[in-house]
């Protein structure tokens, strides 16, 4: 398939993906209560997955929709995690996998796209035990 020169490389969004051996529904309800204010967290997926594991996926939205940079989205997700009620901390700690997945659409223009993640954001992620992943989706997906 020929690649169209108008195909742009761009940041899509950042997902917080959690896996745990316990039901994450109370955590999902606390992080994404459903009444969407101007800035909010959305739960994209919350269900039992393979065997005894449960998975939840979250995304942050600002006043204009998706945040324009990964750092802004990550900071909004970290804010939501850090504001969880003390009663839900054991549920957060029970997560065996905590990943922030930054998504990009690939393309041919511009030549490069850069979105730095400042050290203070990385330190917040580290203190919460969150891994970082970068996913690049192929042209045409």
Automatic annotation (TrEMBL):
Name the record gives this protein: DUF4279 domain-containing protein
Species source reads Pseudomonas fragi
